[in-house]
Design a protein that fits this description.
The structure holds two protein chains of two kinds. Chain A is mainly alpha-helical. Chain A contains 21 helices and no strands. Classes of the chains: A mainly alpha, B alpha+beta. The interface between A and B is large, with 64 and 55 residues. Chain A: One of its GO terms (biological process) is regulation of transcription by RNA polymerase II.
């Protein structure tokens, strides 16, 4: 089986790869639906409050009542949602560092968050809640299991039920696909091969002597430096941009190497192609350039600039004013679901259904229902 | 309605009124990239909820095939084509597990979503129903499992050509897992289910995991005891696909003998039996073995069994078959045959030719059996054979 064949069977390829246009279309739809629902919910809330202005208990959530301003709700745009998601993804890296989880766990958690927010809006589910859940769930899927209570304690100001409340929502948003293919192992493989090539332990793929002659100087040291730098890109930019949605892990890895040391990487690519495959080589290089451009959009350092910080603060404020009041208390919603605290409407529906079934059953029996003992 | 994100049909069939749709309904069950819908706010559901609803609407749930503590299994069919049967495994919310979705369900979903092979059970779809129950839509495998065939000594006669056919399908399944960097870690006859056309399918990925990075440790507490290789019994924390190959070898032996070959009552007993049946592991036949954390072997040591010993026990498999079996049961996991090498072995081409799958011996009455097989909690023992199964994984001990 070739690497390509394998990758094409992955859910990352089948379900989570998009063209930029189709990704934008999905995000726009999600944003539009969420905004409509926020406005609807706020309208309902205002109506309820108008009905019982004296009785505030009608609106259980104290936090929501004060946050809702008068007039039309000013909702986040797609672009604003994306900026906030990126910010909370960075937060996830920091939280992961704090909890000392391996890179794979952090990386998987971030992809979970990014995937989740393709079909869910921040206005519906706040990223501060989702990120904890995503990180916890990633510890399960990446075989680095954390006890829930320990996890919640280590985060601080978090109860186990806060972490679990959105787990189901998250898995649904992930379409129940949990495997994420990362470029980290690919980088280790490429570096090993480069080291071997630099020492002359292995010949270049097509045995072209001229290629090996053109080997960059100080190759061993350059490989080492490129390794470190590329890894930084994989641990930050690759996760925070949309790279995973548009490129394969090996393309992302090669693009990171390209940024780290262009000459070295181009030489490496030459080693892997025969001269006859020049067209293909150009195609690969063009794709890597595109990917590298995307990776360079995000700085590898984790600190946002002051202007960014200001903008993010404003966006966070805006988000607080356009959250869906009916979806704010995830813990409460979850408890209601699990404990069967159904709303009155649901209870009536259930009762009617039971009655219907009962009468249907009785109808089948000519002599009526069985006599209870 | 606002508090209930999912429109739940009272009884599968009557629910079309609440159906919500995305624009690209042409997509096959799980395979298509989702596309944005052009219509607005369908029934007030998030896109994620709509997608779930769409998956759910593709299937109709029918009669219950089996009920267990971990899951209930139902017969189902495609709404668009009632002749296309499926098994719907509805995972119950586990009261005793308070840390969210159980690790075995996570593992099974994670791995089955990624692989597709004729000899591995197909996960056709996943959706959630009322109260956040997970529903796994699996292919319907009505003819029971290999354990039933092996045990039914009176009712089912089979020979070398049949064994070769079943082993071929199992070896291809495990080759495919390893090719995709997945360790199954629970191969045994009752995890090998049989499709209507006789095809054997590897099921139960509740203990499966991806190959570890070299520096990350794994738990040695996997694989049902009778099929567990010596390196795991000795507590190895770093291991490879060789663990599955040992299990495959023991399934092979069991197919020939029609009784589990190495059936220990405890882990220590299992090691003792391995020493008797295969030979005592030592530094000579397995360099480094004495450094494994729980390495202890009984005295006096038994020399590694030779070809004649195997020929006397497994002669029906022929000399080539015996050769393959011996290579699957090599004590040193580094020297044990790999799945790829096993597929290149001379046995497959030797006489007799493997039986065509439609001509393989079978038994009937599988309906109840698929329920039995699927409802078990993956990776954990069913009651009957509980004693020999891997203990429930302790996920806190191993990181």
């Amino acid at each position: 089986m070739s690497e390509d064949e394998r990758y094409r069977t992955s859910t990352q390829y089948r379900l989570w790869s998009y063209s930029p246009d189709s990704l934008l279309a999905l995000r726009s739809t999600t944003n539009r639906i969420a905004a409509e629902r926020v406005r609807e919910a706020v309208r309902r809330l205002r109506e309820a409050r108008a009905l019982s202005s004296a009785d505030t208990s009608e609106v259980e959530n104290g936090q929501s009542t004060s946050a809702i301003p008068e007039g039309e709700v000013d909702c986040l745009t797609v672009d604003e949602e994306l900026k906030l998601v990126a910010f909370y993804c960075r937060q996830t890296i920091q939280l992961g560092d704090h909890l000392k989880v391996p890179t794979e766990v952090k990386a998987t958690a971030i992809q979970y968050i990014k995937r989740f927010y393709i079909t869910n809006s921040l206005m519906t589910y706040h990223p501060a809640d989702i990120l904890k859940t995503a990180l916890f769930f990633a510890t399960k899927t990446e075989n680095h299991y954390f006890r829930l209570t320990k996890f919640a304690d280590a985060i601080g100001k978090t109860k186990p039920e806060d972490v679990l409340a959105s787990e189901f929502l998250l898995t649904q948003g992930l379409r129940f696909t949990f495997d994420v293919r990362h470029p980290f192992r690919a980088l280790e493989g490429a570096v090993m091969e480069l080291q071997a090539l630099s020492k002359g332990d292995i010949p270049p793929f097509h045995g072209a002597g001229a290629v090996i002659e053109a080997r960059p100087h100080n190759m061993e040291r350059r490989v080492k430096n490129a390794h470190g730098k590329a890894r930084e890109y994989l641990k930050s930019s690759a996760l925070l941009t949309d790279a995973y949605f548009h490129f394969t892990p090996s393309q992302i890895m090669m693009a990171a190497l390209m940024i780290a040391d262009k000459e070295l990487t181009e030489w490496y690519i030459k080693c892997k192609f025969s001269a006859a495959a020049g067209g293909l080589q150009q195609k690969v290089l063009a794709t890597l350039e595109k990917c590298a451009t995307m990776l360079k959009e995000v700085d590898t350092s984790s600190e946002p600039s002051t202007t960014e910080r200001k903008e993010l603060k404003a966006l966070a404020k805006k988000l607080n004013k356009c959250r869906n009041p009916e979806k704010m208390d995830l813990v409460g919603l979850q408890r209601a679901k699990r404990e069967g605290e159904e709303s009155v409407d649901e209870k009536i529906v259930k009762k009617r259904k039971l009655e219907r079934e009962q009468s249907a059953k009785e109808g089948e029996d000519l002599f009526g229902p069985a006599i209870k003992k | 309605m606002a508090n209930s994100p999912l429109v739940v049909p009272g009884s599968g069939e009557k629910s079309t009124a609440n159906r919500t749709k995305l624009s690209n309904t042409a997509a096959a069950s799980n395979g298509a990239t989702p596309e944005a819908s052009n219509t607005s706010n369908e029934g007030g559901h998030d896109l994620a909820e709509q997608m779930n609803e769409e998956e759910k609407q593709k299937y109709v749930k029918g009669k219950k095939l089996g009920e267990g503590t971990y899951a209930n299994v139902y017969l189902g069919h495609l709404r668009s084509d009632p002749s296309k049967l499926v098994a719907i495994k509805k995972i119950k919310i586990q009261k005793e597990y308070t840390e969210g979705m159980a690790p075995d369900a996570v593992r099974e979903l994670k791995h089955l979503q990624e692989i597709s092979h004729p000899n591995i059970i197909s996960l056709l779809s996943v959706f959630s129903s009322k109260d956040q129950n997970l529903n796994l839509v699996l292919e319907y495998l009505p003819l029971g499992d290999l354990e039933m065939l092996i045990k039914d000594v009176e009712g089912v006669r089979y020979g070398a050509a049949d064994i070769k056919a079943w082993m071929g399908m199992l070896t291809r399944a495990i080759w495919f897992c390893h090719e995709n960097f997945i360790l199954h870690r629970d191969i045994k006859p009752n995890n090998l289910l049989i499709a209507a056309d006789g095809e054997v399918k590897l099921a139960d990925f509740g203990l499966a995991r991806s190959f570890s990075d070299p520096y990350r440790i794994m738990t040695s507490n996997v694989i049902t005891r009778w099929y567990r290789p010596p390196e795991l019994l000795f507590g190895a924390k770093h291991y490879s696909g060789a663990v599955d190959i040992w299990s495959v070898g023991l399934v092979f032996a069991e197919l020939v003998m029609r009784i589990p070959y190495i059936a220990g009552d405890t882990e220590v007993h299992q090691i003792n039996l391995i020493c008797q049946a295969v030979g005592t592991p030592n530094e000579e036949n397995w360099p480094g073995v004495s450094k494994l954390p729980e390495y202890t072997v009984p005295e006096p040591p038994t020399p590694v069994r030779l070809r004649d010993h195997y020929l006397s026990l497994f002669g029906t498999a022929g000399p080539e078959g015996v050769d393959l079996l011996m290579k699957m049961l090599i004590l040193d996991p580094r020297r044990r045959i790999t799945a790829r090498e096993a597929l290149q072995h001379g046995w497959w081409a030797a006489d007799p030719v493997p039986t065509k799958k439609q001509d393989l011996p079978r038994n009937s009455g599988g309906d109840a059996k698929i329920g039995e097989d699927l409802k078990r909690r993956p990776g954990v023992l069913d009651d009957e054979r509980g004693a020999k199964v891997a203990r429930k994984l302790d996920f806190t001990a191993v990181r």
